[in-house]
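sorry for the late reply, my laptop died twice this morning and i had to redo everyting from scratch. anyway the thing you sent over, i finally got around to it. pasting the sequence first so we're on the same page, its 332 residues, then the predicted structure underneath. double check i copied it right bc i was rushing
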Amino acid sequence: MDHDSTNPAVRVALLGGGGHGLGFLGAAVASLPNWSITAVADPAQQARTAAARLLPQARVFASPAELLAAKMDFHLMVVATPPQATLEVAAAALASGARVLVEKPGARSRGEIEQLAKPSNGTLAGFAYNYRFHPAIQRMRAMLTAERAPLRRLELRFVAPLSAGNSWRASREAGGGALRDLGTHLLDLATWLTGKPLQIDSAEISSHHTEHDEARVCLRAGDTAVDLHCAYHGRPQCSLRAELETTALLTDLWALAGPVRLSNPRTLPNIARLWTSRLISKIPGQRPAQALRESRCRMLAAAVHGGGWLASPADAMAVLGWVEQVESSAHR
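ok and here's the structure:
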């Protein structure tokens, strides 16, 4: 992405300095010309120590309240806290008059998102569903738009083994679990790619609150069948498959293959389709981590300058509404 280096310096505050905030968002900000993280707030000493080491130019605070009380000037505040803390922190940031980008899923419930969306002094730029900005996803969306045949089926897979068993990601009560952590990305992409709201046909969530958590959900987006699988165990994978009348579009984001078009998709077994997508049509000059960083760069730029494909409060509310429906139907 060609970012305008003539723009004045963009100052970013990071409310939540965990691995995601410092590692992923920090790397994205560092790769944007004239952008910098000038303040970080986190109650954990380990996170503050890491922030001081990685961002020596930034001021480090023991809490978001301390950072907000310092009355510093920022172009953007990014809320990257665990979901159970997001509502309080994001509401305080908005009350300060700041422009705020909230990490997905944005809160623990649809109702909490609704509270954040109420008028405030600040600007809620949107919610950080960064896969909308991924170059392979955008190419797949363009290819689907160009196809004249209806989309019959959309399969989405996100498997990311969970190493930190005691983190908030392992606890659904804290807003975690595979469906809320990984599946929310897929639910958002399903509506973004089809342009239609989802209806849930069936759902199954594992009974584990551990690193073995997973969810399988069958949905419909208009006439399109949507199959979703997310899990904290198994081979790491983030892939999408769109099936039309005589063509399938495939992409594997972590192998950085695709999207690739295959004719007569039903003649190929699943494993052949997957490996074919990995062997051809790779994005020139990019690796998976580079493409993900690019998606975050584009998302951050859209949050500051407007435009793009940022998820709105309505989008975030819809995703968490579907999560709540899935959890309710799966536990009956």
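The mean pLDDT is 86.
thats about all i looked at so far, will dig more tmrw
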